[in-house]
Automatic annotation (TrEMBL):
<dbReference type="Pfam" id="PF06534">
    <property type="entry name" value="RGM_C"/>
</dbReference>
<dbReference type="GO" id="GO:0010604">
    <property type="term" value="P:positive regulation of macromolecule metabolic process"/>
</dbReference>
<dbReference type="InterPro" id="IPR010536">
    <property type="entry name" value="RGM_N"/>
</dbReference>
<feature type="domain" description="Repulsive guidance molecule C-terminal">
    <location>
        <begin position="123"/>
        <end position="363"/>
    </location>
</feature>
<dbReference type="GO" id="GO:0015026">
    <property type="term" value="F:coreceptor activity"/>
</dbReference>
<keyword id="KW-0449">Lipoprotein</keyword>
<dbReference type="InterPro" id="IPR009496">
    <property type="entry name" value="RGM_C"/>
</dbReference>
<protein>
    <submittedName>
        <fullName>RGMB protein</fullName>
    </submittedName>
</protein>
<dbReference type="InterPro" id="IPR040287">
    <property type="entry name" value="RGM"/>
</dbReference>
<keyword id="KW-0472">Membrane</keyword>
<keyword id="KW-0336">GPI-anchor</keyword>
<keyword id="KW-1003">Cell membrane</keyword>
<keyword id="KW-0068">Autocatalytic cleavage</keyword>
<dbReference type="GO" id="GO:0005886">
    <property type="term" value="C:plasma membrane"/>
</dbReference>
<feature type="domain" description="Repulsive guidance molecule N-terminal">
    <location>
        <begin position="16"/>
        <end position="85"/>
    </location>
</feature>
<dbReference type="GO" id="GO:0030509">
    <property type="term" value="P:BMP signaling pathway"/>
</dbReference>
<dbReference type="GO" id="GO:0098552">
    <property type="term" value="C:side of membrane"/>
</dbReference>
Amino acid sequence: LLSVLCLGDCQLHTSCGIQKCTADFISFTSHLNVALEDFDLEFCKALRAYSLCTYRNSKVCRGNLVYHSAVLGIGDLMTQRNCTKDGPTSSTNPETTHDPCNYSGHTEVREHRWGEKTPPPTYLFCGLFGDPHLRTFKDHFQTCKVEGAWPLIDNNYLSVQVTNVPVVPGSSATATNKITIIFKSYQDCTDQKVYQAMTDDLPAAFVDGTTSGGDGSARSLHIVEKVSGRYIEMHARHIGTTVYIRQLGHYLTLAIRMPQELVMAFEESQDLQLCVHGCPSSERIDRSSHLPLPMVGKLLPWGAAAHPLSGYTLETATTKCHEKMLVKDIYFYSCVFDLLTTGDANFTAAAHSALQDVEALHPSKEHWHIFPRSGGGGMGRDSKIFVSLGFLCLILIAYL
């Protein structure tokens, strides 16, 4: 049965993985006995695994005669044994059957290789919304100016850059009107894919017009449009990463979950990453543990310029935000701040959606809500989280 398969000649083609596919198939079938009742079942499972392996190597093995011979041989064997193309594959050796374009399967491979349990991968969350509020991978919460183009993420697998523009004249507050994401090429799972969103242009495709990366049904990277022109999701299975982008009013929000080991895979030259290190101190608005706010009947200074009246008082802004968010956490106070600063009610929806994205993507439920520092200088209800936005609570606590 194995006469159509080759091992020796394949060693001349190191860039083609057909030798490994063949060796795995032989490993799966070497212990099988034709006389056993389940021979056909197990042999078909091994053939499907072999076929899947050749499919994943189709690009690099395109000009390899051994590869094409193996593909034909697999077809003949499947016909002889009445094997269906769809069905289970051999799983006696996870190291050889895992999907290299599925990050969640990598842990199983490591467990098999070393013969001991390894902890599941740690995932981190980063979000940007409003004018603009940043939640870093370390769960630090900051409000920043960062006008112009700034890198949120820049590692060996992914780059994310945002562009922020002023929200109201005479204010340091900015909001995001452009997002550029580069998924870097990764093995045979996907070529480099670039995505770009701008205000009133939130496409459900990459800049090359495609909606996925990877060959055929593998789709290791793909875009899902949830609300046309308003909300899209990007799922990158090969790097275990999920990205949400929304347009609310005239501005964009972003939320991302990514494995910690990939987040930290960057060079020294890539150290300017807002999601990793936060905003530079010179770009922080929430210095001195508070955010200056336009208050009831008067304006508090913010830099050298004063804000125009937003049309909201502290009371009306609080009531408006409370309609969407019942828990008075950082997201609630950011909503109040944005309303008092801009007068744009769309920022209420932005804060609410940002919290919903946290609940969908953040791996630790106990850290979904971040609470400002108490007036006494201690931490709020979640003492495990360092909150750099100790701001608004100090100003609003007397009113709430």
